[in-house]
């Protein structure tokens, strides 16, 4: 993998190849592959917050949900053009992350985790109470998207939705890759390793963390907005604890602190879920459970470490 | 880029179209329901009801073989419901859809139904607004307005003049409250207070105490099944509201899968609902006997009957129209049949069944020793009263 990174644009080419292959390999499952891509984006946002900056969160759904409702309401009341909606979703997610982050990031450890959960719960209750605006438990309906850029109509098979989401995910991935190599990304890693030392060498830890949380919120907001535009309905579940927790499991499965970890984890989790759930609609949760247990026990660094682990095993022989 | 994409989608559409014609001998029905997680009971009951119907009527309707494909939607999750439905339509090429327990899940597929002209039979989701989203929705369950308004009118006829409503603070609860309050005030009764209890409430004492202090003739409630219902009725009894003559009025609270767990606390609770397993008809007894024979652990309740009648409706549509969606909807409109729950008519306008609503009281059956919802009165042929509200 590291050798691959040195070739210019190798990662970009690999990603594009994967997206094109997925498109032709699963012509009948495009809706499902699109959901995977949206989830990848959401898990990437957690990776930035948790894996890079070391901010423990179990409430990322608050930012995802706010992006979804913002984009949904924008499409219903202002304009149904997808790209402005995406921007609104991003701004809404980032704004909530910034405001809540100012308070949240003064705490750490368990307190921080509890508070992130609390923010998501408060958002959910507000959305539930504001029934006239959000549709409450029935969901926000009436979202009918216009063609992307006025050219590509959202079709029944989901071809437009797939490429629309794929391109957005691709762009965000590249941006995150740049960020990881930039001074900001490095200082976030430093904060992750040891906030005290970073403070000692003069890095503004608190401000950097708020910045990372806000960026993560913006990305989660984009993911939520994409979900709202593709599904054309937003329900209270966008704020659910299950969503935050499942996304975190996917990230741990793939490997935290690595951008590829988010992709591997989501693809693995959702594919196993999908295949197992259609093979055995009653007992598929067992498969998921065993898979997570297996990875946590044998590959603590996540699936992304599998090649290295196998290599080491080979050398021992 | 655009040309290739539109070319591709045209090819896919063509593929879809030819497959519909070629597969006329087997018609597939996609069932989207929860089969895992806390709501898995719904999916199990839907499947059991379909199996009972197939055991009784065979697997062919007209000249077509009917095959059911089950997909697990989990809980309320519109993203998942939509992509599963899309997959059923595109990959499995189903001609009919069925199931759908939660309102957002049903709502999310409306554009798909319009685009693919596929009829969808709702087995459960009970919000009136769903059917207005697409002409391809049909519903064989009920709507909250359909049972809450008759409850209010019946209560007024019984001489009840003042009521306090206490509902769980979520979509269906608020629907039930609105319906009851509208009908009760229309009749001339007084609503003393409308309490909305948070979903996660476990201690109902403050709410019950407040109802007691206001001393209405009756209280009307709507709670999600399971623990909240147990907690609420237990507190109702313990605080002596029954002894003070404050009558308990509800809808789905005493449904059969919860009923035995209540114990004697449930005796005397009055509810208005469209199905009781105790319904006195040969058809119902035969239906329950068959279900118990095939699935000894199963409890027959409103979810079972919703799916059973829904399956009947699909058979009728397949026989009349085969794979032609719009023709199937036309054939379903105005269709009349006798169900184990009583006579049914598919309302051409609201596409929700018009049915009897029964006023029931919980009693202990002398023969079996089990608690039952004994029917005390019938409000005949009620349509979806929430349509357009």
TrEMBL record, chain A:
Keyword Transmembrane in record: yes
Residues of the signal peptide: none
Key words, A-Z: Cell membrane, Membrane, Transmembrane, Transmembrane helix
Keyword tRNA processing carried by entry: no
Subcellular location: Cell membrane
CDD domains in UniProt: TM_PBP1_LivM_like
InterPro entries in the record: ABC_transp_permease, LivM-like
Annotated transmembrane regions: 7-26, 32-55, 86-105, 154-176, 210-236, 248-272, 284-307
Topological category with respect to the lipid bilayer: Multi-pass membrane protein
Name this protein carries in UniProt: Branched-chain amino acid ABC transporter permease
Organism: Maritimibacter dapengensis
UniProtKB/TrEMBL annotation, chain B:
Stretch forming the signal peptide: 1-24
UniProt-recorded name of the protein: ABC transporter substrate-binding protein
Superkingdom of source: Bacteria
InterPro entries given in the database record: BCAA_transport, Leu-bd
Entry keyword set: Amino-acid transport, Signal, Transport
Domain Leucine-binding protein: 26-365
Organism: Maritimibacter dapengensis
């Amino acid at each position: 993998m590291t050798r691959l990174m040195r070739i210019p644009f190798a990662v970009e080419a690999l990603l594009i190849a994967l997206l094109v292959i997925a498109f032709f390999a699963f012509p009948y499952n495009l809706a499902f592959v699109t959901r995977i891509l949206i989830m990848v984006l959401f898990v990437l946002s957690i990776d930035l917050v948790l894996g890079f900056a070391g901010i423990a969160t179990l409430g990322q759904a608050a930012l995802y949900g706010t992006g979804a409702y913002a984009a949904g309401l924008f499409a219903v009341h202002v304009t149904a053009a997808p790209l402005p909606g995406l921007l609104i979703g991003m701004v809404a997610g980032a704004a909530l992350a910034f405001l809540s982050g100012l308070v949240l990031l003064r705490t750490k450890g368990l307190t921080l985790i509890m508070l992130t959960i609390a923010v998501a719960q408060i958002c959910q209750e507000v959305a539930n109470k504001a029934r006239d605006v959000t549709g409450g438990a029935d969901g926000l309906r009436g979202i009918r998207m216009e063609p992307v850029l006025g050219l590509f109509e959202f079709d029944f098979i989901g071809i437009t939705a797939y490429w629309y989401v794929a391109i957005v995910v691709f762009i965000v991935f590249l941006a995150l890759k740049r960020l990881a190599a930039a001074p900001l990304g490095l200082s976030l890693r430093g904060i992750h390793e040891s906030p005290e030392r970073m403070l000692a060498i003069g890095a503004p830890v608190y401000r950097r963390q708020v910045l990372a949380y806000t960026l993560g919120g913006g990305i989660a907001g984009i993911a939520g907005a994409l979900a709202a535009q593709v599904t054309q309905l937003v329900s209270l579940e966008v704020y659910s604890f299950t969503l935050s927790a499942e996304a975190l499991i996917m990230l741990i499965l793939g490997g935290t602190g690595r951008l590829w970890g988010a992709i591997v984890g989501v693809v693995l989790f959702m594919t196993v879920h999908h295949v197992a759930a259609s093979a055995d609609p009653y007992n598929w949760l067992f498969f998921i459970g065993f898979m997570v247990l297996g990875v946590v026990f044998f590959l603590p660094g996540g699936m992304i470490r599998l090649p290295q682990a196998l290599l080491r095993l080979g050398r021992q022989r | 880029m655009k040309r290739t994409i539109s070319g591709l989608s045209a090819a896919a559409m063509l593929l879809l179209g030819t497959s519909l014609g070629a597969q006329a001998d087997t018609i597939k029905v996609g069932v989207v329901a929860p089969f895992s997680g806390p709501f898995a009971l719904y999916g199990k009951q839907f499947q059991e009801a379909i199996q009972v119907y197939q055991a009784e009527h065979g697997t062919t309707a007209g000249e077509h073989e009917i095959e059911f494909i089950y997909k697990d939607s989990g809980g309320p999750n519109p993203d998942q419901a939509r992509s599963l439905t899309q997959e059923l339509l595109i990959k499995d090429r189903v001609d009919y859809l069925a199931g759908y327990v939660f309102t957002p899940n049903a709502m999310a597929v409306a554009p798909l139904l319009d685009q693919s002209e596929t009829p969808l039979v709702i087995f459960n989701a009970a919000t009136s607004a769903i059917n207005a989203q697409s002409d391809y929705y049909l519903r064989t369950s009920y709507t909250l307005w359909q049972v809450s308004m008759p409850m209010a009118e019946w209560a007024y006829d019984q001489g009840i003049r003042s009521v306090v409503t206490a509902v769980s603070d979520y979509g269906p609860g608020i629907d039930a409250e609105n319906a009851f309050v509208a009908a009760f005030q229309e009749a001339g009764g007084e609503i003393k207070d409308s309490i909305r209890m948070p979903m996660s409430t476990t201690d109902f004492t403050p709410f019950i105490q407040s109802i007691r202090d206001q001393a209405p003739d009756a209280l009307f409630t709507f709670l999600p099944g399971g623990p909240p219902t147990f907690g609420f009725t237990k507190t109702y009894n313990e605080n002596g509201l029954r002894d003070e003559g404050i009558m308990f009025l509800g809808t789905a609270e005493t449904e059969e899968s919860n009923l035995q767990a209540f114990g004697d606390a449930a005796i005397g609770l009055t509810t208005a609902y469209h199905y009781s397993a105790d319904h006195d008809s040969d058809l119902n007894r035969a239906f329950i006997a068959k279900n118990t024979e095939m699935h000894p652990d199963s409890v027959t309740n409103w979810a079972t009957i919703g799916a059973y009648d829904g399956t009947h409706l699909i058979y009728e549509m397949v026989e009349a129209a085969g794979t032609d969606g719009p023709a199937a909807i036309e054939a379903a409109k105005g269709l009349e049949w006798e169900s184990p729950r009583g006579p049914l008519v598919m309302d051409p306008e609201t596409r929700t069944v018009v049915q009897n609503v029964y006023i029931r009281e919980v009693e202990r059956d002398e023969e079996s020793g089990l608690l039952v919802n004994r029917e005390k009165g019938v409000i005949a042929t009620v349509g979806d009263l929430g349509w357009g509200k």
